[in-house]
């Protein structure tokens, strides 16, 4: 039964080959590599192989026929295949035989081959003349695709066929069974309330692929990508077309094309007429005569007539009298598309009368009234307008400069107030050691205590030598200072040394004494870090640690020698205690060089910022 089916199918395919290619391909259910034997052959098998030369080819010299078909699985997922028929002519009573069938396409480097094996059944004497044996192979391969050219080789025979294109295959009978034929189906709906044309795509949510769209004017216009599912109603024209396709990652995705507004011209024709424009330029020909050149632009190609006219010099500027009978009709072969997707056609009227106020009128087919007049641009008017624009621009720039100049002071004050507000909101954590000068009196003591209280109110942990007299008497100046400086390394913070004239004088004297002591001074520096040596060093030097201020000077000296001056100590100077603010670079003892100096209260915010930076951890940024 299977043999009769394939004989009938093959006969139909071979007899109506031109009709099949023009309409659709035969669909054959396909499970695996098919080989079918005619009567007189048995044990037919097929397997992949390399090309094998054959001694005595069993195929008739005209016995190769190749036919494109569709291989389907249960009537769906159809792919292009080849149905190959071989007419067998056994020789010398041979029984077991084989033949190689090879094929190639342009993208393959080497041909692919199949080996067909079969056994010849000896025929009775009365059947030898009437019977003719044949083999048919249904060849399915990923190398076969629509529109590809395939060449089949059998022995010395070969046949070349071109598989039909997707557009040829995708007839109504192939929709839904060939994957390449699947295209989005859509319709349009006018939303009068929103003044839009809506695109409704069927089965969009069920598709595994991304929907892509483009919009074009005229069927041969450039299709520009369009991401929206709607089009403003005022921009819809009769020649507007859409292309929709599923993005399958290649360039072979078939598209659905539609121009849905061609039959609804009454609604959208007005949009076309309102977007017709003409640019006109009056010039001179090589012969010296006057000419009027024009470019007509419209969303669609239109049937129209264009003619020159003379505009009236009276009040009615829209009245234009036609000049002669020299109308020009627009033809479809002179239109070209511009960058905006509109269509443009040029024209010129030669040997027009010079010195006249010439314009152009347009009569579009199906429109009752005429369009125009369209007149040349007065270059003198445009020149005057450009000069006025430049003058206004310069005046605006000058006015803006004056406003910025007068607002400079106010802007500066606003910036300072904003900076003050930001500094007040700046969170500060850490430990501060506030050390008094050696000549502390009631006024200085009051300022020191006020500074300590304000810093404590900002959230800092504050230690003031004036508040710690009991501990100072119990421990002594150096151990007490050492115990206060230790938290600075772990918690972050700074030691503030109050600077007065007496403090500067003592720092100079202390520095000279240090230089005179020599090696003993270096021992003192080492002793600052070793509490156990405190008593010995105090006995060995006249009075280096007579107070906390002197102990602080030794710590500052150690920081200088270790290259980290300003890491722990800051200098503060009360402006109320001295009429002239001190400088951080001039007028300071050598020992204080490199330490940040803040004049209070004018530099209060800068001091708070420095303490906030220092409170972020050991070795935080150092200000100057």
From TrEMBL:
<protein>
    <submittedName>
        <fullName>Interleukin 17 receptor C</fullName>
    </submittedName>
</protein>
<feature type="signal peptide">
    <location>
        <begin position="1"/>
        <end position="22"/>
    </location>
</feature>
<keyword id="KW-0732">Signal</keyword>
<keyword id="KW-0472">Membrane</keyword>
<keyword id="KW-0812">Transmembrane</keyword>
<dbReference type="InterPro" id="IPR039465">
    <property type="entry name" value="IL-17_rcpt-like"/>
</dbReference>
<dbReference type="GO" id="GO:0016020">
    <property type="term" value="C:membrane"/>
</dbReference>
<keyword id="KW-1133">Transmembrane helix</keyword>
<keyword id="KW-0675">Receptor</keyword>
<dbReference type="Pfam" id="PF08357">
    <property type="entry name" value="SEFIR"/>
</dbReference>
<dbReference type="GO" id="GO:0030368">
    <property type="term" value="F:interleukin-17 receptor activity"/>
</dbReference>
<keyword id="KW-0325">Glycoprotein</keyword>
<feature type="domain" description="SEFIR">
    <location>
        <begin position="429"/>
        <end position="609"/>
    </location>
</feature>
<feature type="transmembrane region" description="Helical">
    <location>
        <begin position="383"/>
        <end position="407"/>
    </location>
</feature>
<dbReference type="InterPro" id="IPR013568">
    <property type="entry name" value="SEFIR_dom"/>
</dbReference>
